[in-house]
């Protein structure tokens, strides 16, 4: 299944908005983000009011997420 392109599509596919208007913790970024719970119960930060995953636009995405070996 392709990733939903709109907030309405996210809701229709079982994503649940958990927290709106938080701020990215990266000091260089500080963008407004919304937190969603995916259908597989994972956390997903998006740019506020959009379906765009925040790590695609974050100025410091390497500070977050799983560490690759």
Average pLDDT level: 91
Low-confidence stretches: none
The helicity comes to under 10%
Number of helices: 1
The whole-angstrom Rg is 12 Å
Total number of domains: 1
Strand content: 25-35%
Q: What sequence of helices (H) and strands (E) makes up the elements? A: HEEE
- Biggest beta sheet summary: 3 strands, antiparallel
Query: How many beta-strand runs?
Result: 3
Which structural class should the secondary elements be placed in? mainly beta
Quaternary assembly: single chain
Q: End-to-end distance, in Å? A: 28 Å
CA-based shape:
globular
Strand order of the largest sheet: 1-2-3
Q: What would you say this structure looks like, in words?
A:
The chain is mainly beta and 69 residues long. The chain has one domain (7-61). Helix content is 9%, strand content 28%. The chain contains one helix and three strands; from the N terminus they run αβββ. A three-stranded antiparallel β-sheet has the order 1-2-3, with no helix packed on it. The chain is globular. The mean pLDDT is 91.
Features:
about 70 residues; mainly beta; 3-stranded antiparallel sheet; 3 strands; about 30% strand
Secondary structure elements and their pairing?
Elements: H1 7-12, E1 16-23, E2 32-37, E3 43-47
Antiparallel strand pairs: 1-2, 2-3
Summarize the structure.
The chain is mainly beta. It has one domain.
